[in-house]
Amino acid sequence: MAFPLFREVYRDTPSDIVEAFLQKTQTPESIAEQIRSGTVYLFIRYDGEIAGYLAYEFDSEGLRLSKLYLLPAFRGKGIGGYLLGYVEERAKERNAQLIHLEVNEVNPHAREFYRRHGFVPGERLDYRRIVMRKELS
After folding, report:
1. Could you tell me the CATH number of the domain that includes residue 85?
2. Domain tally, the chain
3. Rounded CA gap, 115 and 117, in Å?
4. What is the pTM of this model?
5. Quick check: helix, strand or coil at residue 58?
6. Span 98-127, pLDDT tens digits
7. Residue 32 lies in a domain
8. Phi/psi of residue 93, each to 5°?
9. Alpha-carbon span 34 to 52, nearest angstrom
10. Which range of residues forms the domain containing residue 125?
11. 31 falls within a domain
12. What is the mean pLDDT of the chain?
């Protein structure tokens, strides 16, 4: 599922960068290693169909949302907002005060989605990624 989703979402990113990222982080072996290290991966189902997936882990800052991807047919249905609420509840259960994530600067839809849900842009990590954070009360 990750490979076609990433290729679609990052279609404006050089393909060698996308493919290297996929091979490093989204193969079954690398996902299994991430899970052993504490990352939670969840498939998202909507009306009985696989709609996407998300992944998160806890770190020294709080909850790090590392993946939230929906297939195109499932976007715009409120699923993403519901999932952010789900993640926020997991963070609060662990007394985390912050949710943070990285977003591709050339993905204005994702940046706006997170902004609408209370995330604030922060520092630039490299030429394409910026950190966004949401303080929890």
Report:
1. 3.40.630.30
2. 1
3. 5
4. 0.84
5. strand
6. 999 999 887 888 999 999 999 999 999 887
7. no
8. -60, -30
9. 18
10. 40-135
11. no
12. 89
